[in-house]
Write a structure and sequence with these properties.
The chain is of the alpha/beta class. It has helices spanning 65-76, 88-101, 115-129, 152-177, 201-223, 242-245, 263-275, 285-296, 298-308, 349-354, 357-390, and strands spanning 56-60, 80-85, 104-109, 134-137, 143-144, 183-190, 228-235, 237-238, 247-248, 252-254, 260-261, 280-283, 314-318. The longest helix is centred in the C-terminal third of the chain and has 34 residues, at 357-390.
């Protein structure tokens, strides 16, 4: 039987760098100064005495995809945005977008897999803008291939960028935040930190490693009663250029598995996480489904992914031997968006609800009260009718 593959969107519909708005209200950015135990469950806003002072925000992987959309979002808030990535031309283009949005950008070409480059970038950020307030670990790379088609150097490189890049960033940030006893770390994770999927073993392993590192660090900060806060943002699938430039050993071009969102949705989540105390922030219902589904029925996840996780990650376009960014940046006009414009969603109801818990709870309580009142009135009417009929 001939296998039916998902249609891939036409390249004629590409809109690199489209900055469509997420369809729900977002609270303004506030700086993190007030002392609370790190990693607490409260989503209270992190407040500073001087609300008008811009933050200094470092973003890794800032030249494209979610990192670029996030840089624009902080730029729109008037913050000082330090952009780290390897591709110099795209990095400068992203900086220009930050400046146009109202922020102050600083582009520093950096390979996050090299700890000396990360440390040097942190030094430049401090010299340019002062103390680092927020560090966002976002850089990633990946290889699409079955395990038996992977090479040791490919696993090593994905680990260096996707996992150790976040570790090196955290070390550089903590070195500067701990003496002040303040600051915010945002680790960009994935539902795949909990639920590995086929064909992405290197990426899934790296995201699992980040999850373990963050849990350890959180406990250490709690032990020290540190004023430094951290949040891990667990993403669903997103329409970014990664599917056009990560290494691919499959017969067809890769795609996100299942429903995907525009990168601005992730950018809003990261922006919110930088200003609020939340242990973990899931973005998109597919992330919630994958994480909690794996906790409840892991064997069912194994089974369903063995049947849907292969074809579901490939388009109908044959692989064409394109260059990849595993060891060197790829040339080209890649910005925030990828090639899946026609199917990517501009907003997430799940994110709106989880970032507005009090409002959601109030609406739920009001609805429950209204239902209870209607039930009570209906019961009273029935009792009255029964008494009248009996009389």
């Amino acid at each position: 039987m001939q296998e039916t593959r998902r249609k891939s969107p036409s390249h004629d519909h590409l809109r690199w760098g489209d900055s469509s708005e997420v369809g729900y209200p977002i609270e303004p950015a506030l700086r993190g100064r007030k002392q609370f135990p790190a990693g607490t469950q409260s989503s209270a806003v992190v407040v500073t005495p001087n609300m008008s002072e811009p933050r200094t925000v470092v973003i890794t992987g800032a030249s494209a995809g979610i990192g670029r959309a996030t840089a624009r979002r902080f730029g729109a808030a008037g913050d000082n945005v330090v952009l780290l990535a390897r591709g110099k031309e795209r990095l400068e283009a992203a900086k220009a977008e930050v400046d146009r949005a109202g922020g102050h950008g600083l582009a520093i070409p950096t390979d996050v897999g090299d700890p000396s480059q990360v440390e040097a970038a942190a030094d430049r950020a401090e010299k340019a803008f002062g103390g680092i307030d927020v560090w966002i670990g976002n850089a990633m790379t990946a290889v699409f291939a079955p395990v038996w088609n992977m090479e040791p150097e490919e696993y090593r490189r994905v680990t260096e960028v996707t996992y150790l890049g976040q570790v090196y960033g955290a070390l550089a940030a903590l070195k500067r935040m701990r003496p002040r006893n303040e600051g915010k770390l945002v680790f960009v994770g994935s539902a795949l930190a909990y639920r590995g999927i086929p064909l992405q073993s290197s990426y899934c392993a790296a995201k699992h490693a980040i999850q373990g590192f963050v849990d350890s660090l959180r406990s250490e900060l709690l032990h020290d009663r540190s004023g430094i806060d951290l949040t891990m943002v667990q993403l669903s699938g997103f329409n970014t250029p990664q599917f056009s430039w990560v290494r691919n050993k499959l017969p067809y071009q890769p795609r996100p598995l299942g429903k995907c969102y525009q990168p601005e949705v992730a950018a809003e989540a990261i922006f919110w996480a930088a200003s609020h105390r939340r242990r973990e922030l899931m973005v998109g219902f597919p992330a919630v489904e994958a994480i909690y589904g794996n906790k409840l029925l892991p064997q069912f996840g194994d089974w369903i992914l063995s049947r849907q996780g292969f074809q579901g990650q490939e388009t109908d376009m044959r692989s064409n031997g394109r260059p990849d960014n595993l060891f060197e940046p790829v040339a080209g006009d890649f910005a925030a968006h990828g090639i899946f414009e026609d199917e990517a969603l501009d907003s997430s109801r799940q994110l709106m609800l989880t970032t507005h818990r009090r409002e959601t709870a109030a609406i739920g309580a009001a609805a429950a009260g209204a239902i209870a009142l209607l039930w009570w009135r209906s019961r009273k009417r029935n009792e009255t009718r029964g008494e009248n009929n009996h009389a």
